[in-house]
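Re: the pair you flagged

First of the two:
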Amino acid sequence: MSSEAAANLSHPNIVNIYDWGRDGEAYYIVMEFVAGTDLKTLVTERGPLDPAKAAEYASQVCAALSVAHGYDIIHRDIKPHNIVLTPDGGVKVMDFGIARAGNTTMTQTGSVLGTAQYISPEQAQGRPLTPASDLYSLGVTLYELVTGRVPFDGDSPVATALMQVNDTPTPPRQIRGSIPPGLEAVILRSLRKDPAERYASAAEMREDLKRVIGGEPAIGGAYGGSSESDRTSVLPAVERTSTPRTAVAPQVRQIPERRTSPWVWVLAIVVLIALGLGGAYALGYLGPSGIVVPTLTGLDEAGAEAALAQAGLVLGERGTANDNDVAIGLIISQDPPAGEEVEEGTAVNIVISMGIAQVEVPNLVDQTEADAIGVLRADGSGLDYDRTIGEYNADVEKGVVIRTEPEAGAQVPEGTRVILYVSLGVEQVKVPDVVGKPVADATADLKAAGLEVKTNEVFDDTAAVGLVISQSPDGNVLVEMGSTVTIEVSKGPEIILVPDVRDKTEQEAKDLIVAAGLTPNVVYVDSLDDGLVVNQFPIPGASASRGDVVEIEVGKLPEEP
C-alpha cells in the first residue's frame, strides 16, 4: 500500500498520515503527532493491565481495523508498540504507512513482514494475508496486555515464527487467574491457526469484546486445539517468486522500497527455509530429537503444570525461596533448565517465589533518634533508616521517637527504609506585639498564635481607655505554645475627689491630700485661726487627677506692730 492510500484512512483511533516523500534512497512518512504512551511501554513499566481496560483498548483497535479493512488495507504489524494510549484514555493505531492493500501486487507469496512475536501463522509462512491476520496479531497483543507476556517467544525470530505456526498457546487464565473466562475465549479464538476459524471481521471481534466489558459471556468459543489446522505438521515448501524484502525481526519497521541490508536478506532466507521445512529443520539441524523442556520461569504452578503436560513432561518437586525480583507464586528456577532435551515423562523440579523476604519493624517508640537509627542500620535488622520527620509534641520529650512508618510490628519486605517521627518538644511560637492595640484585637491576635491571655486594667494618664499599655512576655519573643501573656489595659486617667481639709491642722491637711494621691501646697495667711487650714483650692469635692496640686491656706497670727 502506498502512503497515499494510508492517508485516506481517517478515524479517531488511527494516527493520520499527512504526507510522504523520498530523500535520496530513503523514504519518509509525515504522521500526526500523538501525545501519550504506547501500550508496550505501559505494560513494561506497570505490568499486566486491568482486563477490562485491556478489552476496551482492543475494542478501539478493532474499530480502527474495521475502517482499514473496509478499504481492503491490511496493517500487517499490529502490536503494542504501534498502539498509543492518549491522555484522554483513547487509543490510536499507528504505522498504517507501512501497511499493504490486500489486492496489491506487492504482497508477494513467500514474503514476511512484521514482528516475529506478533505475526500470524500465515504471515510467518509467507502466505497471502487477510483481515484475519491482523486479528491474530491483535489477539497476541491482547494476550500480552493481560498476562504481561506474549504467547510465543523463542530464542530467535526463526524459532518464534515456528512456534506461531506449530505451537498451542498457554491459556491466559493459567498465567493470571483473574482474567475473565469470556475475555480468554476472545483471545483464544483470535489465536486459532486457521484464519477461517478466527473472527470473521474486526467488527465481530469488537462486538464480543463489548459483551465481555459488559459482563456478558463471549460468543467466541475456546481455543480449537483439536482442529486439523492446529496440529504440528511438516509444512510444504514455501514458493518464492522473488527475493524477500523484509526479515522477521523483533520491533523492526521497514518501508518496502528502502534498500535492505545484507544480513536482513540472509535472515529472511533462513526464515523461509526454516518455515518451508516446518518442524523438520530449525536453526540448522535435522531429524527427531528428545523433548525440549519448556520455559517455566515466570509462570505460576498451574501454568507450569499445563505447559509440561503439553510437552509430555510432568511436574516434579516444588521448592520455595524468597526472591526480590519475582512476584509471589511465580517460578524462579527449574531443573532441568529450559531448552534441555529430555525423555518423555521426565519430572521437572521448580522453585516458587515467596516474594521478597519479610521482616518485622521493631518498636522504636520512646527511643532517642540516634538509638533508633542504630537499630535500623544494625547488621541483621533487614531494614534501613530513611529519614527523620520532626513533630511538635507536648507529651514526648524532645529528640525521642513518637512513631515510625511503617508502624512497629508491621511485616515488610526486607530492605524497607523506615521513617522516624521524632518529637520537637512543645511547639515554640512568636509572641505577637500587641502594645497600643485595642484590648479585643490584642486578645484575638494572642489566641490565634496559640497563647493564653491575662488582662489587667490600670489607670493611665496618656493612653486612651481600652488600649494595651504593656505586655509580658514582650512581643516577638519565642515561647512555648499555650503560654500565658499578661497585658495591661488603660482605664484612662484616675479621677480623684479633693478631700475637705478645712479647719484641719497643717499636718493633718497634708496627710489627707497625699493619701488622696494629690500634692499639697501650703500658703500662710494672717488669721486668728493659728495653725489651721482656713481655705483650700480646689474646693472640697472637686475632681482632680492623681498628682494634681491642692493649695491650702494655713492661718498665722499677725505680728504686733
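Second of the two:
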Amino acid sequence: MAFIQHNAKCPSCGKNHLSVNADGSSKCFYATCGTFHPAPQQESNVSNITQPAVERKVKPMQPKNSEGSYAALTDRRISEDTAKKYGVKVVHGADGKPIEHHYPYYNGHELAATKTRKVENKDFYLKGSFEETALFGEQLFNKGGKYITITEGECDAMAAYELMGSKWAAVSIKRGAAGAERDIKDSLEFLESFENIIICFDKDKSGTEAAKKVARLFQPSKAKIMTLPNGFKDANDMLVANKHKDFMEAWWSAKTYTPSGVINVSEEKKKFFNRPVKDSIPYPWEGLNKKLYGLRQGELVTLTGGTGLGKSSVTRELEHHLIKNTTDNVGVIALEEDWRRTIDGILSIEANARLYIDQEREKFSEEELDKFFDLLYDGDNKNRVWVHAHFGTNDIDEIFTKLRFMIIACGCKWVVVDHLHMLVSAVSEGDERRAIDNIMTRLRSIVEETGAGVVLVSHLRRANGDKGHENGIEVSLSHLRGSQSIAQLSDCVIALERNQQSDDINESNTTRVRVLKSRYTGDVGMATHLLYDRETGRLQEFEKESYEEEDADFSALEL
C-alpha cells in the first residue's frame, strides 16, 4: 500500500514519524512508538492528520459489539474477573470467537487512551495518546504497597496478578522494551512508593537489557529482576501452562539488581576457588622471577629504557626463551628492522654468537647455521614462530590487524611488539599523548579479549638535568615518554639502566634491571644485573657483589 503522506505528527507519541496510507490508515515509525492507526472509519479519534476519503469494502464478518464486553481472555487463559478488574474488554466475531482485546489507559481515573490488539495477528492500534497516561493497571493500586510487579505487556500484568493469587499489584509498561525507561520515568514516584519492585520483563535479549536499564532508575536495592524458568518467555506463557508454583518460586527468588562490577562475595565462593590459572613461564633471569613470579599470559608487559641501552638484546633473549621453554606459538612485530634481522637476532641467541654481524657469521659453516636454524625454527618448533615482514609500514590499523591475526589465526600465545613509538609515528595525529592513549587502550583491549601475553618495548623521554639515560640515571615511571597511560594500562613495567659513558669497561657493559610496576606482586625496585658478553652477544645475570670482584675484560658495546 502506497504512502500519501510522510513525517506527519503521531497522535500517540507526538513525534513527526507518522506515515499515512492511501486508505487513511497510518503507522508511526518512531523507535519507541510503532503505533498503528486504522482508517477513520474504524477509529474516530485520530486527529492532526489530513487524509482523503476512501471508500472501504465491508468485511463479511463484523463484531457483535465493537466496544466489546467484559469477558475472559480465553486465548490467554485470563479470567473474566481479572479482565474486569483491569477494565479489559473483548470483542467477539459473529461466530462467537474473540477477535479483539481493548486495553484501557488512564490519566488518574479518567480514561485517556485505549489500545486495541487483534487476536489473530497480534497487531495493535491506539485510540488517544500515551503521553498523559499512567502505566497499564496503575490506577487500580494505592501507593505505598509492599510489592509491585512490572511486566512488558498488558496480558503479562494480568497473568502475573493471577499467578500471584490476586494478592499484589501488577502493572505493565506502555511502549514495550524499547520505551521502558521512558514509561518508568513517567510513573517513577508511584513505583518508588512500594517497598519492593519486581521487574518481570520478557526472557529475551531486549527484555533482559531493558530490565537492567529500568532497575537503575530506582533507589539502590529496591528493584529486583526476576528470571523466568527455561522454556517460558513471559508471565502469560506460565499462566497458559498453569505454572503457578513455578512462577512464585521465580518471583520470590528475584535478585536485587546490582550494577555490573559490583558483586556479592558470598555468592562468588565457587568462582573464587575455581578461578582459571594464567599460563606463565619464568623469566630467563632469576632476579626478575623473585620480583614478578614469571611472565604470564593475559598481561601487558612494557619494557623501557633509553636509546642504545639494551632493549633489543633483552627482547631477543625473551623471544628465544619463549620459543625454547614453551610449546606456545610466539609472534614478533619488530617495526624498526627487516624480518631477516629479526630471525638473525633470535638465532644468534641459539648459536651463542652474533650472527647478525657478517664477520661473525662467516665463522660458521652452512651446515652449522642450518642446524641452528632447525633447532630453533623447525622440528618440534615448526610453525610456532611468526614474525612481521613489512618493514616501514605506516598504517596503524594494518599493524593492529596483523597483531590480532598473529594471536587469533596463528595461535600466538606470546607477542613481542618493538616498539611503541613506531606505532605512534604511524598515526597521523599530531598529539603524541593522545596517540599513545589510543594505542595503549587498543593493546589493552586485545590482551583482555584474547588472553595473550604481550611484551611492548617503549622509549623514555629525555631526562632533565646534567645526566641523561646514557649516563645510567635511575629510571622512574615519570620518565616514560608521552603518556601516563603506558604505566596505567601495563600490568608490569620493567626499566633498563646502563651507564654506557663510564670509563669502567664492566660498568659500561652492565645493565641494571629495575621493576617500576608490578600489578601481580606489587614488588618493585632493583631486580638484577645483566653483563653483556662481547664474544657471544649474550646477557649474563650476576650478583652485584660477585661482579665487583670480577675483573673480566669486556669492551663497551652499544646494545
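The first helix runs from residue 80 to 86.

-B.
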